[in-house]
Amino acid sequence: MKTSGSLAALVGGLALCPAPAVAAADPSTPAVDDAAIDTLFDDTMSRYNLPGLAVGVVVDGEVVYQRTAGELRAGEGEAVTPRSLFKVASNTKAMTTALLARLIDRGLLAWDDPVVKHLPHFRMHDPWVTREIQVRDLLIHNSGLGPGAGDLMLWPEPNHFTREDVVAGLAHLKPLHSFRSRYAYDNTLYIVAGEVAAAAGGASYEELMEREVFAPLGMSRCEAGGFDRDAVGAVAQPHRRVGGRNVVYREDGPVVDTVPMAAAGGVRCSLEDMLAWTRMWLQPERHGLVDGRPWLSDARRRELWTLHMPMPLGSRMRAWDGSRFYGYGYGWRLNDAHGRLKISHTGTLSGMYSALTLLPELGAGFVMMTNGSGDDARTVLVQALSDLLVRPGGAMPVAAYAEVLQRERDQAPPARRAPDTSARVPVAADDATVPPGLYRDPWFGEVSLCPDPRGLVFASAKSPTLTGLLMRLDGRLFVDWFDDSIGTDAWVQFTVEGGEAGMTMAKVDPEADFSYDFEDLAFQRVGPCH
């Protein structure tokens, strides 16, 4: 489905009809049309064999392009539509910070409130940090923890961790750096932020999101908590590539449960709803009014879009966007793209990829969502759509962006490539060099490493997907997970101190997603196998 009308005309008309409080478009902004976006859409869809794709573009407060293709479940015939629900993953973070901003507008909390003011039981590893960490610090990835610290309590799904487990686990996660000294992306502190909102707002995070965000903004198809899958209908399922085909995995059951990581990445929305969200940010005076009054004050909006934490500016961003700065606001990433301010975020979760990009000085923005293994697809399509709007000369072909990504991989140093593990052999159940038994980590909980007819099996009590066979490769040990959708196997090393056995882990693939934070685990043997 596409909307009628010419995107070229609307982009060209921005200079004549700028949105209030938004800079007028430069007359040199390249004019683009529906056919140009269609080409990018089609080429991305086919090059990356996506099961489903949804894209929408907003200019001057209007949806000027809206298109979906593919299926909710590959091979079953139910088409993706603008009303289909996708996991927006970490695009949830901007919704969480907007919820907090709403509560601040009502005088229920402040960005610089100590977290313990609202959650007296909250603890970080360092008592000084516990005392000093503020609500704002939960939102800008400056805690001193390593990237993705504690994420194994969230993924892979499903697991048995609760929100209380995640908040309590933070006391045991050791920092890698000084508090507030540098950027390192995290999810767990956004869960704390959701609990701060619940404490201040007097209702659960899910109730507050519905009451304060979705309902007033007319985002009727968004879900933050549990729901009946069939009653809601049209719920896209995640896919991965197996043997050249898109295969559904980790699919939803009939009842979709509330998840611990809701405030960090648990919201699902349709393309229609995400475009309503986009319009509200680009034209608050027109699409951000509730009962004639601003849904969010100008002061809060400015705070959300202020750069609070610098981020590393990579060579690709310099080359593609001509960027000179990059940083994190409250739930948003900020950079300059060919002299224009870009406000954006992405979302990645279990076979679902999303992106939202706003170009407020042009009054333009776009959304993309896919239910497939779409990391490169998202990178390519988002950059192309951005270039179409702001880059002198417009967008390059999809293939040109894809070739850059492939060159980067080909030129990566050997130390950053996953090793070949095909020569692995199972460790014998009676191997004297491996101490079997029950092990416990203070935040991840209990795992067993016990004999099985196949050898020694590692099994997590609270994250049962993390179950696999202990293998040996060139003198090193690692766990080969039975579920091959897990993004990396894990090295295992045993220690003995004071007569007590310990166990540490690390990613086999150094380039795997940082949410596989095996490096943060420190197990101690607590007993024999049952």
Radius of gyration: 24 Å
Largest sheet geometry: 8 strands, antiparallel
The general outline is: globular
What is the terminal-to-terminal distance? 58 Å
- Average pLDDT, rounded to a whole number, is 93
- As residue ranges, the low-confidence spans are 1-30
What is the helical fraction, as a range of percent?
A: 25-40%
State the strand order across the main sheet: 2-1-16-15-14-13-12-11
Structural class: alpha+beta
Query: How many extended strands?
Result: 25
Can you offer a commentary on this structure?
The chain has 530 residues and is an alpha+beta fold. It has 16 helices and 25 strands. Strand 5 (239-242) and strand 6 form a beta hairpin. Helix 2 (34-47) runs antiparallel to helix 15, helix 3 packs across helix 8 (205-214) and helix 15 (375-390) packs across helix 16.
Topology, please?
Blueprint: H1 7-13, H2 34-47, E1 52-59, E2 62-70, E3 86-87, H3 92-105, H4 115-118, H5 127-132, H6 163-169, H7 188-201, H8 205-214, E4 227-228, H9 229-232, E5 239-242, E6 245-248, E7 255-256, H10 262-265, E8 268-269, H11 271-282, H12 284-287, E9 289-290, E10 293-294, H13 298-304, E11 309-310, H14 315-321, E12 326-328, E13 333-337, E14 340-349, E15 352-359, E16 364-370, H15 375-390, H16 398-410, E17 425-426, E18 437-441, E19 445-452, E20 455-460, E21 467-473, E22 476-481, E23 490-497, E24 500-507, E25 522-527
Antiparallel strand pairs: 1-2, 1-16, 3-8, 4-7, 5-6, 9-10, 11-12, 12-13, 13-14, 14-15, 15-16, 17-21, 18-19, 18-25, 19-20, 20-21, 21-22, 22-23, 23-24, 24-25
Helix pairs in contact: 2-15, 3-7, 3-8, 15-16
